[in-house]
Amino acid sequence: MNKLMISTAFALGLFASSAALAAEKTITLAVQNMYCAACPHTVKASLEAVPGVTKVAVSYKDKTAIVTFDDAKTGVDALTTASTNAVYPSAPKG
Fold it and tell me: What is the residue-averaged pLDDT of the chain?
């Protein structure tokens, strides 16, 4: 019985620690090919479709997208791929 309790506690601790390692991150992407006021809507939709993305703000004026995401579910490569697939190549700004 003690071994079962110890192994259960260990498994729960391991699960909790892996969840604790996940973090919400925010990145600013420089976005190309935005030439009209409608373009940001397409960029935003493409980024919001990426699993793990929680918030997107796109600026036509600045040609940027600020994306908040769960880094356990997605990463910068998936974000830049999503915008590129929507014909708006992007890269981390700065």
Answer: 87
Rg (C-alpha) for the chain, rounded Å, is 18
End-to-end CA distance of the chain: 56
Enter the pTM of the model: 0.77
Question: What is the fold, at CATH topology level, of the domain defined by 22-92?
Answer: Alpha-Beta Plaits (3.30.70)
pLDDT of residue 17: 47
**Cα–Cα distance, 29 to 44 (Å, whole number):** 12
| Residue 50: C-alpha distances to residues 31, 34, 37, 39, 74 (Å) | 16, 20, 22, 18, 7
